[in-house]
Write a structure and sequence with these properties.
By secondary structure, the chain is of the alpha/beta class. The chain folds into two domains: 9-145, Rossmann fold; 161-344, Rossmann fold (3-Layer(aba) Sandwich), CATH 3.40.50.2000. It is 37% helix and 16% strand. α2 (46-52) links the parallel β2 and β3. α1 (18-34) runs parallel beside α10 (264-271) and α6 (161-170) packs across α9. It is globular. The mean pLDDT is 96.
């Protein structure tokens, strides 16, 4: 679409989560190349800011997600003097949707009706078109909505040397290839069983592969990692719940390969240039898998829809999830081992 006036000031709101924040960075690169004189302001949450702090050419406004009416009144006061030509409303959730009226922008671009959750369409005046596409392509559609056609798929995350040095000090000793395993998503249904992780860790250890476990402080993640370690009869390096977002990105950057389910570190690994064997069954890899690495993901979504939901994967509505503890069990240890050997060799 064509804009009715020159675009000089652009606001982007994407507060979280880490994987989504990573996927916004190529949108920033795309805008910067097409509109080098435009001033870009990114409204972002504190944890996510740690990952992208120092991104050149971007002003950050760091806020906490509002939790009560007083928080919204504070944001209204904080934003009242800021004016933008365009707001890219790249997060559709009730708490963030209620922020959009306080951001002064003539054009507010949101998601299409299918993806504009929690009534986002009522707080925007322009929508991106619907498409069955990867999440990052949906974010890039926001740049297209303001007239930018050429995509720039680049990250160059501003990782600090201190984080890289810290990461190197955590790595297991030896000369073998390094496999980073981030075994858990915050939603348990997306996670591969602990005994299968333990088996694949043992198999890769026997092949001389060095292994390091990563993860966040969420109870689901901590519980799964504890269960995995209980089933392994040798020590394994574990830095889970010990890393800041930028430190985690530095660990992922060190890896020769990352093994993970549908979770943020998948996209963080892509952003730092590391191969990812993603494990998918609850949602399809074409939607939320590692961008441009779908060919090495293990995707059982279609099988899960067919066998567990008893539906045709070609006709299920966009956004259908297989909410079953049996979905991830469709992924076998043998095929994960085969894919890891392929990637690491």
């Amino acid at each position: 679409m064509s804009m009715p006036m020159p675009i000089k000031r652009i606001a982007i709101l994407r507060l979280s989560a880490l994987g989504d924040v990573c996927m916004v960075v190529p949108v920033i690169r795309t805008i910067q190349k097409a509109l080098p004189q435009a001033h870009i302001t990114w409204f972002i949450s504190r944890p996510a800011f740690d990952l992208v702090k120092g991104l050149e050419g971007v002003e950050f406004i760091v806020i906490d997600k509002p939790r009560n009416p007083l928080d919204y009144l504070k944001l209204r006061k904080q934003f009242r003097n800021a004016k933008f030509d365009v707001l890219l409303a790249m997060q559709a959730a009730l708490r963030t949707n209620l922020i959009y009226p306080f951001i002064n922008a003539a054009i507010k671009v949101g998601f299409d009706d299918t993806r504009a959750r929690d009534g986002q369409r009522w707080f925007t005046n322009t929508q991106i078109p619907f498409a069955r596409q990867h999440l990052m392509d949906s974010f890039l559609s926001f740049a297209e909505a303001i007239g930018i056609k050429e995509k720039v798929i680049e990250w160059n995350l501003p990782l600090k040397n201190d984080d890289r040095e810290w990461a190197k000090q955590q790595l297991p000793k030896g000369d073998g290839k390094l496999l980073v395993i981030n075994p858990a998503a915050s939603k348990a249904e997306r996670n591969w069983p602990a005994n299968r992780y333990a088996e694949i860790i043992t198999l890769m250890h026997q092949r001389g592969v060095r292994i390091i476990l990563t993860g966040g402080p969420h109870t689901v993640e901590k519980t799964l990692i504890a269960q995995i370690k209980q089933q392994i009869d040798f020590p394994v390096t574990d830095v889970s719940a010990q890393t800041s977002p930028s430190q985690l990105a530095a660990i992922l950057e060190c890896g020769d390969c990352v093994l993970a389910p549908d979770t943020g570190p998948v996209h963080m690994a892509v952003a730092v240039g590391t191969k990812v064997v993603g494990l998918y069954a609850v949602a399809p890899a074409w939607l939320s898998g590692p961008y441009s690495q779908r060919e090495i993901a293990i995707d059982k979504y279609d099988e899960a829809v067919t066998t567990l939901l008893k539906k045709d994967p070609a006709t299920v509505p966009w956004g259908t999830r297989v909410h079953s503890s049996e979905a991830m069990k469709l992924i076998s240890v043998a095929e994960v081992e085969e894919r890891l050997v392929q990637v690491l060799s």
